[in-house]
């Protein structure tokens, strides 16, 4: 399975990826620190601070190649296990905040995760694409595949 990336408008980016696992487990892996540490950030060591409630804050710090990559945001909606929304900001680029909505659907024991990201401008969206986001997301989701296999 590989990630599908689309740009339906000038300020949106939609990614979808399927996993060979039930929806409740895939949702938990996206929303619980004990699971996130195993795959988010391409499977590299990760510090996770997450207050998973509407209005709660999150901050993840990936440690890779002798550097730290910090991300943060706020949970804006939760409809477990169907989905959640949050804001997302890469700390070295403050003020470029995007809104992400995650939707989890299950069919035949496989779960598809669709994330829709809304940017303030086309430049912000294109900058994210040019940063290597797609490859990084695919590496993270491959790490999630491996982690889900260990859990089953």
UniProtKB/TrEMBL annotation:
<comment type="similarity">
    <text>Belongs to the AHA1 family.</text>
</comment>
<dbReference type="Pfam" id="PF08327">
    <property type="entry name" value="AHSA1"/>
</dbReference>
<dbReference type="InterPro" id="IPR023393">
    <property type="entry name" value="START-like_dom_sf"/>
</dbReference>
<dbReference type="InterPro" id="IPR013538">
    <property type="entry name" value="ASHA1/2-like_C"/>
</dbReference>
<feature type="domain" description="Activator of Hsp90 ATPase homologue 1/2-like C-terminal">
    <location>
        <begin position="20"/>
        <end position="148"/>
    </location>
</feature>
<protein>
    <submittedName>
        <fullName>Uncharacterized protein YndB with AHSA1/START domain</fullName>
    </submittedName>
</protein>
């Amino acid at each position: 399975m590989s990630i599908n990336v689309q740009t339906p408008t000038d300020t949106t980016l939609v990614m979808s990826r399927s996993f060979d696992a039930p929806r409740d487990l895939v949702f938990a892996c996206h929303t619980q620190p004990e699971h996130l540490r195993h795959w988010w950030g391409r499977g590299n060591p990760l510090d996770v601070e997450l207050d998973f409630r509407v209005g709660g804050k999150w901050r993840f710090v990936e440690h890779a190649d002798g550097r730290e990559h910090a991300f943060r945001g706020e949970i804006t909606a939760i409809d477990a296990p169907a989905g959640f929304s949050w804001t997302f900001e890469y700390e070295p680029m403050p003020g470029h905040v995007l809104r992400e909505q995650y939707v989890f659907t299950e069919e035949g024991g496989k779960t598809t995760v669709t994330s829709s990201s809304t940017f303030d401008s086309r430049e912000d969206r294109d900058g994210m694409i040019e940063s290597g986001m797609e490859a990084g997301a695919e590496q993270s989701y491959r790490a999630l595949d491996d982690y889900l296999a260990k859990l089953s």
